[in-house]
Amino acid sequence: MARRPIIAGNWKMNNNKIEAKELIDGILYGISSLDAEKMPEVIIAPTYTALWQAYDLIKNEPKIALSAQNVNPNPSGAYTGEVSLDMLADFKVKFVIIGHSERRQMFGETDEFINQKALAILNKGLIPIICCGETLEQREQGVTDAHLRTQITKAFEGISASDAKKSVIAYEPIWAIGTGKSCDAAEANRTIGEIRKVIKELYNEEVSDNIRILYGGSVKPSTIVEQMAQPEIDGGLIGGASLKADSFVDLIKGAM
Ligand code: PEP
Known about the structure:
Elements: E1 6-10, H1 17-31, E2 41-45, H2 48-58, E3 64-68, H3 85-89, E4 95-98, H4 101-107, H5 111-123, E5 127-132, H6 136-140, H7 144-155, H8 161-166, E6 168-171, H9 185-202, H10 205-210, E7 212-216, H11 221-228, E8 235-238, H12 245-254
Parallel strand pairs: 1-2, 1-8, 2-3, 3-4, 4-5, 5-6, 6-7, 7-8
Helix pairs in contact: 1-2, 1-12, 7-9, 11-12
């Protein structure tokens, strides 16, 4: 089963207008000579404030797609500080990251809210990148697989098989995010295999064979080749190493 790899850069709360332009210009320059046919699907997820500029810079570049880092599932209304799917659609945003551990831990987002977001995103024709992952404590207690099963089952509640098939999952062990300590590639592969089994149980083999599952957690140019060599790993969701054009382009090359 050939699943097209993804290299997605999650900028988090980084890059003002000038920095965002410099980074995008650097990425565009770095990928200009790459063969589009062999490239992974490249995604950047700037902050909301940089989306307009990012859209403008890449609108004629089919090699890069835009993602938002979050969305509010309601269509409009009294939700101070929030952004709707309609607003994201203005900038041709194709993906939305949801369920990131930083949002779960710092902003109290629940599995139910993440599920509401996933349903709204798919309803609007966009693609959710649904993050899941265990804490170090859960890993040490041996409950990683059970925890991921719960997160995935709840995130996909009410989602049809055809929508599940297009969705993207990012397995991000929380202890590996921003720590410089990547999960061992073979173990990440095993864990992602377990997530794929849950998807197969929830849907069927066609969905589990097609859904793309990324690894995230201190992915670097020095780790990407081994990670991409794992049969279950379909790409990376990358924070720190996506903030410099050189390293992001090296990650793209590492996935080719
Ligand atoms: C992330 O934020 O999703 C992430 C994986 O960050 P980092 O690559 O910096 O660990």
